[in-house]
Design brief:
Layout: E1 4-11, E2 21-27, E3 33-41, H1 46-65, H2 72-94, E4 104-105, E5 107-113, E6 116-122, E7 126-131, E8 137-140, H3 147-153, H4 159-163, E9 184-188, E10 194-198, H5 200-203, H6 208-217, H7 221-234, E11 241-248
Helix pairs in contact: 1-2, 6-7
This protein binds manganese (II) ion.
Length: 249
């Protein structure tokens, strides 16, 4: 596979006193790459435990199984198995600890292989693909697994009503809640596009169009990641902000 570059950054934001988001980007055996964002929730330090546990166990399972021979079909099964492993690990980490009773986490992850990216999603963190020529263009790969989003799909809420809805952060799925987690899977060719994984701390503060313009404005991925986080903070920084960017070099 041609070279793939990636960066991962996370920031506490302007309003929270600790960061419950976790990010990861790492190369895999056989030349693949894995990117991931987890946005944890729960009292005390539980949110961080949930997001860290999810990423660590998810990656361990992927690293065990991905190799030069893994094709697109086995890749999907592998992602599903890794989500189940991560989910069980978060549930296990909460067992017997009352302070961790309600902990959980989102997870969005991308496996970048020769043929493109395979994305798995649980919750409302997001993956996007951004092309910067001829004009900045942004495409949301994932669909939020949130209660409000489901109401929109059922025609019970308009997209406008959904945007400012007080319950828009209530997740339909998350890791650490039930053994029957139902991730969504997406696949996309990358071409010359930039893959972005992010937590809702970015998308609540920065519009899709503004994200596309910032990504198009810089060549260097680390500078781009810093600029995205800076914009989220300028616009309020009401939540932890996480950004993982990757593109073919
Ligand atoms: Mn968040």
């Amino acid at each position: 596979m041609s070279d793939f570059r990636a960066v991962a950054r996370t920031d506490v934001g302007r309003k929270r006193d600790h960061n419950e988001d976790r990010v990861m980007e790492t190369g895999l055996r056989g030349g693949g790459h894995m990117l991931a964002v987890a946005d944890g929730m729960g009292g005390h330090a539980a949110g961080e435990v949930a997001s860290q546990t999810a990423l660590t166990t998810f990656h361990e399972r992927i690293a065990e199984e991905v190799g030069p021979d893994s094709g697109p079909i086995s890749s999907r099964d592998m992602l599903e198995a890794a989500v189940e492993t991560a989910n069980a690990a978060v549930i296990e980490a909460a067992r017997g600890d009352p302070e961790r009773g309600n902990m959980g986490t989102t997870l969005v992850a991308a496996l970048v292989l020769v043929e493109g990216a395979l994305v798995v999603n649980v919750g409302d963190s997001r993956a996007y693909l951004i092309h910067d020529h001829p004009d900045p263009r942004i495409e949301q790969i994932t669909i939020d697994q949130s209660i409000v989003r489901e109401l929109v799909e059922e025609g019970k809420l308009s997209p406008e009503e959904a945007r400012g809805h007080p319950r828009r952060h209530v997740l339909a799925q998350s890791l650490g809640v039930s053994l029957d987690v139902e991730p969504d899977f997406f696949s996309t060719p990358l071409g010359e596009g930039t893959l972005l994984l992010c937590s809702d701390g970015l998308t609540e503060e920065v519009s899709d169009d503004a994200i596309a313009r910032i990504v198009a404005a810089y060549d260097d991925l680390d500078t781009t990641a810093r600029a995205l986080i800076e914009r989220a903070n300028e616009n309020g920084g009401s939540d932890n902000v996480s950004v993982v960017l990757g593109r073919r070099a």
